[in-house]
Design goal:
This protein is an alpha+beta fold. Helices cover about 40% and strands about 25% of the residues. The protein folds into 4 domains: about 10-100, Arc Repressor Mutant, subunit A (Orthogonal Bundle); about 105-145, no CATH class; about 165-235, Calcium binding protein CcbP, beta-barrel domain (SH3 type barrels), CATH 2.30.30; about 260-339, Alpha-Beta Plaits. Pfam families: HTH_PafC, WCX, WYL.
Length: about 350
């Protein structure tokens, strides 16, 4: 590897910098990553031509070269730094082949992207972009590993096993209202309701349909496995202008018909009172608290309490207390069997 050398052109850079609109570090990094392979392919290109190619002035090109001049591979000694020379008015870049090499996805990165895109594609209607991107990742990852295309694939639950999912997706795609027969676990009854679908989503490994419920005259979240029957109506399914979806990261947002849950938490789990919208908090002198929440799905409370590992417990309602106890016993039994 060769060493690095270059001239600064500091006076020209200083005069132009003040007139240049500010740019973010991300914008500049993107340009530098594009600039390195381009300069390697256009040895001796005039600074003016490089400036036109990247849509900047000549002083900015010089500043970029000054930055590249101190970049390189780990070690950052004389032999690892990029060799950038431009004192003749023409740019010569060497010792930058590693940086200019095309980026390759590792197997783990490809699997992670594949999982995300498959989940996105199964959630969205008309997900052509996700599907095209997914195919490109499969081909690129396979080429990098010397394997046939399409070898990376994940068996994700896309909800298609539920008989209502196809009807719901079709109605959503066509903008049709749906009629649901929905089981309300907290009241142990089935209800009939018309819903304008806003989105279909997977949250914490559970599929939901979110939409404006005309029975409740409000936005509601419906668990797919509690939809006993669904049919598309020949009625426009556009939600009212004022309907707003819930925060995807927080289905503890209270709703009129949601379950009221009381949780006692130690001071180590007291953060739940700040993180989740609640109906009231009673704080103890030792930092513990008793918090009342309204939740759309009791299963989310069960998972929250189990994750907290004894730092919180459900106090009300009794049926949820029993459900958490049963799930805890099952988890402990499974752990014992595994040991």
């Amino acid at each position: 590897m060769t060493g690095s050398s270059g001239t600064t052109g500091a006076s020209t850079t200083g005069r132009s910098a003040a007139r240049r609109p500010p740019e973010t570090a991300t914008q500049r990094l993107g340009r530098l990553l594009d600039m390195v392979p381009w300069l390697l392919q256009h040895r001796g290109v005039p600074i003016a031509d490089a400036a036109r190619e990247f849509g900047v002035d000549e002083a900015q090109v010089v500043e970029d070269l000054e930055l590249l001049f101190v970049c390189g591979t780990p070690g950052y000694g004389h032999s690892e730094l990029i060799d950038a020379q431009w004192d003749s008015g023409h740019i010569y870049l060497d010792n930058a082949d590693d940086i200019a090499a095309p980026m390759r996805l590792t197997r783990d990165e490809a699997v992670t992207l594949t999982a995300g895109l498959q989940a996105l594609g199964s959630t969205l209607v008309g997900s052509d972009v996700a599907e095209r991107t997914l195919e490109k990742i499969r081909v690129a990852a396979a080429a990098g590993a010397g394997e046939p295309a399409g070898r990376i694939d994940l068996d994700l639950d896309d909800g298609s096993q539920h008989p209502a999912m196809a009807t719901l997706k079709d109605a959503f795609a066509r903008g049709r209202r749906v009629h649901l027969r929905y089981y309300v676990a907290t009241r142990d009854e089935s209800t009939e309701r018309d819903v304008d679908i806003m989105r279909i989503l997977n949250l914490d490994s559970q599929w939901y349909v979110e939409g404006y419920c005309h029975r409740a005259a409000d936005v509601r979240l419906f668990r797919l496995d509690r939809i006993e029957d669904a049919s598309a109506l020949d009625v426009d399914g556009t939600p009212p202008a004022g309907a707003r979806p819930r925060d995807l990261d927080d289905v503890f947002v209270p709703g009129e018909n949601d379950l009221t849950v009381v949780i006692e938490a130690s001071r180590w789990a007291a953060w739940i009172a700040d993180y989740y919208p609640n109906e009231g908090v009673e704080r103890g002198p030792d930092g513990s608290l008793r918090v009342t929440l309204k939740v759309a799905d009791p299963a989310l409370v069960r998972r929250l309490v189990l994750r907290l590992g004894g730092e919180a417990r459900v106090v009300e309602p009794p049926e949820l207390v029993a459900a958490v106890a049963d799930e805890t016993r099952s988890a402990l039994a499974a752990y014992a069997d595994g040991s």
